[in-house]
Amino acid sequence: MLKVPVVLPGREYNIIIEQHCLQHINDYVDPSREIVIITDDNIPKQYLNTIAPLLGDPFTLFVPQGESSKSMEMAQLLCEKMLKEGITRNALILALGGGMVGDLAGFVASIYMRGIDYIQIPTTLLSQIDSSVGGKVGVNASIMKNAIGAFKQPQLVLIDSTTLQTLDQRQVNSGIAEMIKYGLIASKSLFKALLEDDILPNIDNYIYECVSIKRDVVIKDERDTGVRQILNFGHTIGHAIEQASKYQLLHGEAVAIGMVIMAKNKSYYNDLIHLLAKYNLPTSYEYDKDEIYQYITTDKKATKTSLNIIVVDEVGNGYIEPIEISQIKEKL
Ligand SMILES: O=C(O)C(=O)C[C@@H](O)[C@H](O)[C@H](O)COP(=O)(O)O
Ligand SMILES: [Zn+2]
């Protein structure tokens, strides 16, 4: 078992990485609590069949799989269903699934009766190494991804990497794109290992390294006003492309393309292209520059006139560079 403590002012929680931990989830989650599981309708049934009996068969809410469930309407619907079921504010939400479920369920936890506890149980690689950690929760608006949300840290993040065995390869690769991002912004050795090694036999160590990088950044800047923005490398253009594709591209795929655009003329460009090809990730996308620019103007790192972009000049060292917002056009 690997443990990464996240210590924030007034709050502390652990990220636990342990294969098969779902099989004894009652050692981590108090079964005597009032529990609500939020998951999606595509979750392999064996996870629910494993955890539900150990937790006293909790009230379980399913949302349709896919990014379109990450909406205000869905958050409201879940709240209404919990109210009808008589769920009190002592309840604990378990977010069981990928990034969409974690963001949505965490958001519901942040607003239900002004806020209740939640635990992240991420089952995709992307959610295990990234979205389940750091407390960014929220839903999408029609013209902006993750536009409506909160910072709400979980009580615990419970990662059972054996869930990756049921994940399709495209989803695994999407997670690897965020892993490549961690290498680029913070770890030369991780980037090198991704290039040279087969990560799956040692997946828990890779997850540990990624969440440790993320933890170290988040504890310095929980609210994303400074250094945390480096975790957004590749996302300024990536989010715009993800939206322009109408979410046909997975998040990691769009971030991969965003990273390639930001890596132009850098020394590691060829290595990055090679790495993305190794994991079957896209390196380009046909897009309408005006449309992408429009989306970028709503980036959370933008003001009316300026934008913080994340730059990586050499592998392992990401930094923030403020530019005039229109200057981003030169990169498109
Ligand atoms: O946790 C963060 O901070 C990140 O930027 C991590 C990103 O990989 C993640 O996609 C995040 O949800 C993006 O947040 P946003 O604030 O740019 O919507
Ligand atoms: Zn991301």
Automatic annotation (TrEMBL):
Superkingdom classification of source: Bacteria
Residue stretches in coiled coil: none
Localization of this protein: Cytoplasm
Leading EC class: lyase
GO biological process, one term: amino acid biosynthetic process
Keyword terms, alphabetized: Amino-acid biosynthesis, Aromatic amino acid biosynthesis, Cobalt, Cytoplasm, Lyase, Membrane, Metal-binding, NAD, Nucleotide-binding, Transmembrane, Transmembrane helix, Zinc
Pathway connected to this protein: Metabolic intermediate biosynthesis; chorismate biosynthesis; chorismate from D-erythrose 4-phosphate and phosphoenolpyruvate: step 2/7
Residues annotated as domain 3-dehydroquinate synthase C-terminal: 175-302
Residues noted as binding Zn(2+) in the record, renumbered to the chain: 178, 235, 251
Any one GO MF annotation of this record: 3-dehydroquinate synthase activity
Reported cofactor(s): Zn(2+); NAD(+); Co(2+)
Domain 3-dehydroquinate synthase N-terminal: residue ranges: 61-173
Record's signal peptide: none
Protein's name in the database: 3-dehydroquinate synthase
Record text on cofactor binding: Binds 1 divalent metal cation per subunit. Can use either Co(2+) or Zn(2+).
Positions of transmembrane segments: 91-113
The reaction(s) this protein catalyses: 7-phospho-2-dehydro-3-deoxy-D-arabino-heptonate = 3-dehydroquinate + phosphate
Similarity section: Belongs to the sugar phosphate cyclases superfamily. Dehydroquinate synthase family.
Sites where the protein binds NAD(+): 123-124, 136, 145, 163-166
Function: Catalyzes the conversion of 3-deoxy-D-arabino-heptulosonate 7-phosphate (DAHP) to dehydroquinate (DHQ).
Pfam family, one: DHQ_synthase
Gene field: aroB
Gene Ontology CC, one term: cytoplasm
EC number: 4.2.3.4
